[in-house]
Amino acid sequence: MIELEGLTKRFGTKTAVDHLSFQVRPGVVTGFLGPNGAGKSTTMRMMLDLDNPTSGTVRIDGKHYRELQEPLKYIGALLDAKAMHGGRSAYNNLLCLAQSNRIPASRVGEVLDLVGLTAVARKKSKGFSLGMGQRLGIASALLGDPEILMFDEPVNGLDPEGIHWIRNLMKALAAEGRTIFVSSHLMSEMALTADHLIVIGQGKLLADTSMADFIQQNSRSYVRLRSPQREQLLDALHANGFTPVEAGGGTLEVDGATTEKLGELAAENGLVLHELSAQRASLEEAFMQMTAGAVEYHAHGTNVHGADGQGVTAPPAAGPRWGDTTKGA
Amino acid sequence: MAAVSAVLQSEWTKIRTVSSTVWTLASALLVTVAMGAALCALLQSTFDDLSEAERATFDPTFVSFSGMMLGQLAMVVFGVLVVGTEYSSGMIRTSLAAVPQRATFLFSKIAVAGALALVVGLATSFLSFFLGQALLGEHRTTLGADNVLRAVVGGGLYMGLIAVFSMGVAAMLRSSMLSLGILVPFFFLVSQILSAVPKAKEVARYFPDQAGSKIMQVVPDALNSEKAPYGPWGGLGIMLIWVAASLLGGYLVLKRRDA
Description:
Helix content of chain A: 25-40%
Number of domains of chain A: 2
Number of helices of chain A: 10
Oligomer: heterodimer
Strand content of chain A: 15-25%
Helix content of chain B: over 70%
Distance between the termini of chain A: 42 Å
Shape of chain A: elongated
Number of strands of chain A: 13
Radius of gyration of chain B: 19 Å
Number of helices of chain B: 12
Structural class of chain A: alpha/beta
Largest sheet of chain A: 6 strands, mixed
Number of strands of chain B: 0
CATH topology of the largest domain in chain A: Rossmann fold
Largest interface: A-B, 34 and 32 residues
Distance between the termini of chain B: 19 Å
CATH architecture of the largest domain in chain A: 3-Layer(aba) Sandwich
Structural class of chain B: mainly alpha
């Protein structure tokens, strides 16, 4: 259990973390979501007592981090992948960490095996790729077999196989009753791994909710219809108490209806349908709307209409489309 | 509190598993011994050319330590790298997450590295002395002569303290490059030059290297050098104050600043 209370960090006049209060509970994967520059890493560094908070406290099982006896046995963290001495071998980097917390040296071999680095255990870590560095960082987090694990953007630099592996690892660790706290700026990644969600933007808490609730509240589901007999269809819908919305290209969108109900309605009225599909707005869009006002680094130059902050609600033009809008029909 | 013995063991592993430890300490030893030996050989062959005052105050012990002026730079590099690479590699965050008690972390590291520097410093000092005396021929002195043992042990202490002073400076500046950029020119140029400038030398003799090296002199005004307002142990005391100040500064920076 990690408890944050009014955690605040200011750098000069800029507030990076603004009165954050939340709890990270055991037995589940808690996702820590926010756009770049939202204060996720700063918050995590304060949780580990690396950065001093301007005000507020972090307690780990009721204690301050500095009061922990051999902290690696309580809490393991992956902050940045390359936080190791490059001239030292992977094995020796982990060995000096293990010794400082009286963790038996045999555990070093175990965690290297767990992350799949046994073959390069004696190689200097400066030659490691980003993905291997990430695995070494995860090995160091697991070293003390801790009850609490913190991962800052763990999928960065991992290949698809590695991403799959880390997702399963986090789920398995949570299933053992451990506290897992993982940050990301990708909603789709969180949707796949997290049970609970904490969203921040510009250092402020925007949401503290279960993943299921977040999906229910933020992903609008609706039915899309297209028909050559558009006027009759509109009449039929209105007559049955639906409020269709024109969505361009001759399509209609109906909230709060099922495809079954609308299909039957069209059949009763003898209407031809060219499209009848269930739609769901992506979580990524919901997340972007939630953090729109709190995005630190806006991308300028694309056709941003109107005032500041409006343009960011549009999906990024070139970026991959996580959680496609169409989810079956 | 993390157990101090565990942290000491961990720091020892850190030191022995990087190659810079071997090459810096080996350089310190070899450069000092070789340069001292060369100067002893030179003085032995040109002893008759020295002025009368210089011959009267000839200090064979001090002469055999001539290489320390250069060899100490390798000790500076060793001290700076021990602390500085924690920052340049980003290891500091991993290290402090494992040992969050700042004093335990920093002073365990400095104790282990300082002890190693002291051992190498003493080996350097004794080797320089014996090799130097062997080359000085009839002008040599022995370990049993007055104050000679104090000077030889003092030479080892001096080398160790220079390394520890550098560790404190690196902890304050949190960067190997910056620390080396300041310490190397300071010990190699600034301190040496100022000690030759009439007014400036009054100040320069209180610099850590100037004051600390007094302990290596057996003849107080060796080779016609000027009198210092402190004795050999007083000089070492001044150096110890510098070392204590750099360690305190390093600790306060580590405690206050974000890692």
